[in-house]
Amino acid sequence: xxxxxxIKIQNIAKVYQxxxxxxxxxxxxxxxxNRGEFVAIMGPSGSGKSTLMHIIGxxxxxxxxxxxxxxxxxxxxxxxxxxxxxxxxIGFVFQFYxxxxxxxxxxxVMIPMMYGGIAKExxxxxxxxxxxxxxxxxxxxxxxxxxSGGQQQRVAxxxxxxxxxxxxxxxxxxxxIASKQAIEIMKILDQLNRKGRTIVVITHENEIAECTKxxxxxxxxxxxxxxxNKKRRNLTKIAx
Amino acid sequence: MDYxxxxxxxxxxxxxxxxRTGLAMLGVVIGIGSVIALMSLGxxxxxxxxxxxxxxxxxxxxxxxxxxxxxxxxxxxxQTLTYEDAQAIANSPQITTLSKISAExxxxxxxxxxxxxxxxxxxxxxxxxxxxxxxxxxxxxxxxGLQVSSxxxxxxxxxxxxxxxxxxxxxxxxxxxxxxxxxxxxIGVLQSKGGSGFMNQDxxxxxxxxxxxKLLFGVDYVSSISISAINEKVMTQxxxxxxxxxxxxxxxxxxxxxxxxxxxxxxxxxxxxxxxxTFTTLLTGIAAISLVVGGIGIMNIMLVTxxxxxxxxxxxxxxxxxxxxxxxxxxxxxxxxxxxxxxxGAAIGIGISxxxxxxxxxxxxxxxxxxxxxxxxxAGVGILFGWYPAQKAAKLEPIEAxxxx
Lengths: 240, 405
Known about the structure:
The complex is a heterodimer of chains A (240) and B (405). Chain A has helices at 49-56, 79-89, 105-115, 120-133, 149-161, 179-194, 206-209, and strands at residues 7-18, 21-33, 38-42, 64-69, 72-73, 90-93, 167-171, 198-203, 214-219, 222-228.
């Protein structure tokens, strides 16, 4: 018996109704992601990859089809239950970092823990250790404005880790970052994957996708390709 | 996320935009400040009036002329009481409850002493007036029965009138004043009773009733008759006995058509209290309108804040904030604005009422009720006007909110 997949997407469709016109952003998409995978979801703009990311991230529900996260039917949950799934199971890394302005790195990392009911005394300690994991142990009290793009994204990764989620869901995590720092980000994600984290990266850049172990390619809302990445870049060899 | 965190978070957010927070607060500050100031001033003036009425003693009855009704037509007369009425009451064997009686005629007049002059209340009285009204003499003597029967031109002055006419620390006994070009000898000065403005009890001139009626003002009626009963328990009996006698004297068979009215201090007190209550309520009501306006201002600011922070709200929701937490966060911010506004407003209101009561020499009262009310109202305003913006924030879709530029 094969172990239960972490994510099971089955015949998912997402239809947007704008006036008279129906737009099928996703159509009959199915795949599974197991624990410990490092997956890139690729596709040109308009391919439906953002919509798919929203559905995997429990930010949106599919129009039809099934989404099982750790065996749980996410598409059947109500708004507050979705909020709980996002808080407990998913660690988001956004393209524009989405850190709270004028708020210290430490406080930013503590936000999900505040909503997740982690005891107050434990939050700062945990946040410090996650910030140390991304190499920002000396930037705890810096606000986003005092940090570079790469550093901000590392704070976001620490925040994504803070609730010890089942998957890290990164939406164009390097889209706004200079290339040297982008590699740094990918190295951090790679290291996390080596420690057993499941990581899903949404990207349109080949260079980024090449760092992962598996590439899912979307086009016009359909799943075009889904295959292991054989030309994987070995990030451990890149010196920073 | 507990209350303490909600409060620290919202205080943090509010300090990020101090000017806006301050302006949003201003409406509540003004509203609460004026409510508290007006409520405590209202209470202070009521206390002052009440105590001055009570100081006259609880066994005091006042008879004042009322309009005469004949054949359903209300006559305009206020000249229905005479000195003879007072004498009849004093001498009647049927009235067993009477202790002291005085009749008064009161009018304003110009008083001249040398180069100084003042306009004040001149009252013609009988000798018992001092006892009935609890007036004490600080120097000289009060008007005697002989001076009343002989139409003497003598006067007893209030301490403030003395100061007005002769200056501070002058003993005016033996000196003269001129009332409507007639010369009066000053025979006594009253002790100060306090009060100021329309409640001033120290600015007055007392002369014999007969002198006032015949020599000064040329009238044959009195403005009122004051009576002190032998004790408080017989007040109702005294009222009935006097009414019966006066009705007989005025040949009125139906008591409903009486051309006079008899008040006890309690009657006056309840009338005055109801009047000041009405005024206080009215003024407080007007002040409360500014609270509502302040609340609308806060709603406006909160709506702007929600729009401005759409991305933040989207992020918080993406990170697991449930609807009620977002609602609580924005509601807490609104309530913090109104609550802080309430504290500042209360402080200002108390300050204003302290200054005004000192200036108007009223007793300074700090009513706990009005302060509690102010806080309840300010928190209520925050909840009421913060609710809609908070709901709007809570209902934002996380994807839409994250995309918002």
